[in-house]
Request: fold
Amino acid sequence: TAERAVKIMKQKQRNEEEDEMMRALEGTNVSGQVAPDSADASVQMFLRFLQNEYQWGSNSVKAVLNELSKADVTSVSLLAMCWSDVQAHFPFGMRRMVEKELKNRNMIP
Reply:
């Protein structure tokens, strides 16, 4: 019963985070503002966008965002500019996917 309550609470939290991300994505697309995968997007929006695409765990993304925040990396363009310095903050699989996405967007060589 306590385990069930914890599972329900965690599921609600995941659902809220997903809903928040989807609202952010829909808001940017509808309003014509910054796309979540553009160079001008916030690094948080970019990683949430990729989290949805690659099914990363919320805790991993939060930990990376916390480290990037400490390093004042707030936009995708800043992430690309200092990629060699901040890539160590990413778990290996996530690092490979972010690097691939940055390369696909011609933001890093």
About this structure: The first helix runs from residue 2 to 31. Confidence is low (pLDDT under 50) at residues 27-31. The two ends are 52 Å apart (CA to CA). The chain has six helices and no strands.
